[in-house]
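Page 42, continued from yesterday. The earlier attempt failed because a stray header line got pasted into the input along with the sequence. Redoing it now with the clean sequence only.
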Amino acid sequence: MSTATPDREALYARALAKSWFYPLALPDGRPLASTHDGRVDAIHHTRARMLDALLADKFAGDRGALSAIDLACHQGWFSLQLARAGFGQVTSVDARDEHVDDAALLASIYELDAIKTRQRDVFALKPETDGVHDLVLMFGLLYHLENPIGALRVARSLARRACVIETQVVPHMSGMVDWGSYEYVRPLKGCFGIIDEVDETHAPEASVTGVCLAPSTEGLLWLLRAVGFSDAYVLPVPADGYEQLRHGKRVMVAALV
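This time it went through. Structure tokens are written below.
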């Protein structure tokens, strides 16, 4: 039985009245409805475990003075994780108003004052107005963009110490390419796959433009160094982790400043 105040019960009622993309329960234990009946919960749990391992490795100790920004925060599940991990400031950013509202609702329900939400397009973010953060999170965003390189440049400009990117990837291509003449060739560093979401822009997990460029893993690592990160590497996946991450169809990459 809930012992929440009437104001908190009103917040709980708002959360209970809708479906959520992430595995969530209210502080009193009542589960929140899933948009997919829990079918994709495994990917969220695997991402969370991998993020926890990265935080223990690169952000050990007291994190109260640290800040993070969660790009395309969706409903704010990973923003919650960062706030619970002790980050003193977590900025949750998303292009869709409904996602920002959901993230703000969760922050209120769980009384995580460290989380501040903002409705912004990722390409409008600038360090002068949006700050430079110890950690930049970019989960499930890159492969929904038609300008993924521009997004990586934004991420680098906002990062003080590290950026963690989780993305779908496509098969790699390598070899030499004639560059204007057969006498002048250049090595192929990576590739992008073009994915069509033109008829799905209404979907809350889809691209806002419908044109998506998904990188190869090798291309993504090369690009992260090219936009100014000092190093980039693929994070290890738990043996029982989500199958796409285990088999390299998705990757989680750490990029260090």
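Notes: The domain at 42-256 is CATH 3.40.50.150 (Rossmann fold).
Reminder to self: strip header lines before submitting.
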